[in-house]
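Budget justification aside, the reviewers requested a transparent look at the raw inputs and outputs of the sequence design task funded under Objective 1. We therefore reproduce one unedited record. The lines immediately below are the structure tokens for a 387-residue chain.
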């Protein structure tokens, strides 16, 4: 490189020729300093400094001693680096070290009370459902966006959905979200995309059914069970289980609702369909790598009067006594598992309820806490009008 530069080749051209940066070429040219190349010392020096300036051991001992004294006798109860620097006895020990130096001494000697935040890796997608966490099954999540009002028009609610692994978003804007509308939307989505293994909802009335009666199995749950799809209900007042869907809800509002002025509901619906189509096209690769879906049965119609049969999953948190409320009943789970997450698997109509322990820090360890008997009453097996 130096020989090429001395021959008149520009520094940038030499750097491109040898695949190095321009400062590297300039550094070696400066090292040569117009000497004969065979007389130049080409050995590369160490990158660490020749001298390391470290605080004297006696000053470290003084810092620790003053910290102990302030911790025991200070009226303010302050004994950190700033307090040590402020209370340093200059007349006896001389000028104090800098505050940052005192802080480094405390950290090096393990004399800090505060603990660094431990950042643990996030659990896998759908960690609370073992099949979804392993990537062998997919789960469709559904939610409702509320509080949107068209100018001079009606209040708008949007039913949204997205798959945990495949993505495949959906949005259905309308004047209010009803159970009948959700039934049509789910069947339309699953006829076109196929059936997932799980369908996840929050605890909205139109999803779960009436809350004022025990042993209620709503129409959405019956639809899922008849199609062989396990309905999953998220914990009360815990939006973290719908994080992917909440993220999509925010994107939909930014890219569709707030981006344009919508003259009517039909215009909003057309723009929403265009956005959903574009979002699915962009996520084709993710959808191709997702677990396969079952085909929707051809000759099939939903019959709400068919007795529910299958498995339901409720994600709940225990109370101060280790119990939780489910299907209008209170079940004791574990008196040692207080205010903790539990996955309750209900088998209908006459199977047991199994309670499994859940921990985000240890998502693969989900032991069985308790199994209790439960049977759906005969009068609740057929759908009544209030369901």
């Amino acid at each position: 490189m130096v020989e090429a530069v001395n021959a008149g080749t520009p520094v940038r051209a030499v750097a491109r020729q040898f695949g190095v940066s321009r400062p590297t070429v300039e550094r070696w040219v400066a090292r040569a300093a117009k000497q004969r190349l065979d007389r130049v010392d080409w050995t590369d020096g160490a990158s660490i400094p020749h001298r390391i300036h470290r605080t004297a051991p006696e000053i470290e001992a003084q810092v620790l001693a003053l910290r102990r004294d302030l911790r025991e006798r200070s009226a303010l109860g302050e004994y950190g680096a700033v307090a040590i620097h402020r209370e340093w006895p200059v007349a006896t020990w001389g000028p104090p070290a800098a505050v940052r130096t005192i802080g480094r001494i405390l950290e090096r000697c393990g004399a800090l009370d505060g603990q660094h935040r431990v950042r643990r890796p996030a659990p896998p997608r759908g960690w609370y459902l073992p099949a979804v966490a392993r990537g062998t099954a997919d789960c469709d999540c559904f939610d409702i966006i509320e509080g949107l009002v068209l100018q001079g028009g009606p209040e708008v609610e949007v039913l949204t959905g997205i798959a945990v692994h495949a993505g495949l978003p959906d949005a259905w804007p309308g004047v209010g979200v009803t159970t009948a509308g959700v039934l049509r939307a789910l069947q339309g989505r699953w006829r076109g995309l196929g059936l997932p293994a799980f369908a996840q909802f929050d605890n909205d009335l139109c999803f779960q059914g009436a809350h004022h009666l025990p042993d209620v199995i709503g129409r959405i749950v019956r639809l899922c069970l008849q199609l062989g799809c396990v309905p999953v209900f998220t914990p009360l007042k815990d939006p973290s289980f719908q994080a992917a869907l909440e993220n999509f809800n925010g994107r939909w509002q930014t890219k569709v609702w707030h981006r344009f002025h919508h003259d009517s509901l039909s215009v909003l619906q057309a723009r929403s369909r265009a956005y959903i189509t574009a979002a699915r096209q962009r996520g084709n690769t993710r959808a191709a790598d997702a677990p396969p879906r079952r085909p929707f049965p051809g000759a099939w119609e939903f019959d709400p009067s068919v007795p529910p049969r299958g498995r339901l999953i409720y994600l709940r948190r225990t109370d101060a006594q280790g119990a939780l409320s489910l299907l209008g009943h209170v079940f004791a789970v574990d008196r040692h598992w207080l205010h903790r997450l539990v996955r309750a698997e209900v088998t209908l109509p006459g199977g047991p309820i199994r309670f499994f322990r859940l921990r985000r820090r240890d998502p693969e360890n989900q032991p069985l806490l308790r199994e209790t008997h439960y049977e759906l009453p005969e009068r609740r097996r057929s759908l009544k009008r209030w369901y």
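Residues 261 and 318 are 45 Å apart (CA to CA). The chain has a mean pLDDT of 88. Computational costs for records of this kind are itemized in the attached budget.
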